[in-house]
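Customer escalation, tier 2.

The customer says the design service returned an amino acid string that "doesn't look like it belongs to this structure." They asked us to rerun it and document both sides in this ticket. The original structure tokens are below, unchanged.
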């Protein structure tokens, strides 16, 4: 009896390891086509069990990661804009940036909803839905770049500019990867 229990445990354990490796391999393989493959794997690797080998789930997870990054950036930049001692132009650029990030969050949220619908349709409607996703995610990328443009010039060099730039670069990278995965799998 003990031997058969051990054999069953070994089989279940082996099966779990093989399935987990295959799921992780799918995410890793899919991330290779993105512009930032290491960031892609770091941000999506923990989703491998829920994604399994489903391209739509992978693209949706990538959009969700991008939206979460945008939310975190919005919170950070909102707090930054309220710090005492900012130059008036820094404060204005930070406030504009918050508006742009909020706009990107709206676009990413719409993209997530559109992906859900895209999973249930075919043909020209699928193409139209995916075109919407591509447009909205591309607009989010434009919003991030416009945010960084608001801090251009030597007058704004310093900690605020570097901090916002770091957040926006991270947001651009995960969002660019999400766009790559959405377009690759449809």
């Amino acid at each position: 009896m003990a031997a058969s229990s051990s054999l069953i445990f070994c089989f279940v354990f082996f099966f779990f390891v093989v399935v987990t490796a295959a799921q992780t391999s799918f995410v890793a393989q899919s991330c290779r086509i993105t512009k930032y493959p290491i960031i892609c794997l770091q941000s999506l690797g923990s989703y491998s069990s829920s994604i399994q080998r489903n391209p739509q789930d992978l693209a949706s997870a990538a959009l969700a990661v991008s939206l979460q990054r945008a939310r975190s950036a919005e919170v950070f930049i909102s707090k930054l804009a309220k710090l005492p001692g900012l130059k008036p132009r820094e404060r204005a650029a930070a406030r504009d940036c918050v508006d742009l990030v909020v706009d990107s969050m709206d676009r990413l949220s719409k993209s997530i909803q559109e992906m859900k619908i895209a999973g249930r349709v075919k043909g020209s409607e699928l193409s139209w839905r995916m075109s919407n996703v591509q447009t909205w995610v591309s607009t989010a990328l434009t919003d991030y770049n416009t945010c960084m443009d608001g801090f251009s010039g030597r007058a704004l060099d310093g900690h605020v500019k570097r901090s916002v730039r770091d957040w926006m670069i991270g947001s651009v990278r995960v969002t660019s990867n999400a766009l790559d995965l959405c377009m690759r799998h449809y």
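Tier 2 assessment: The sequence is consistent with the input. Residues 74 and 98 are 6 Å apart (CA to CA). Confidence is low (pLDDT under 50) at residues 6-23. Sent an explanation to the customer and offered a walkthrough call.
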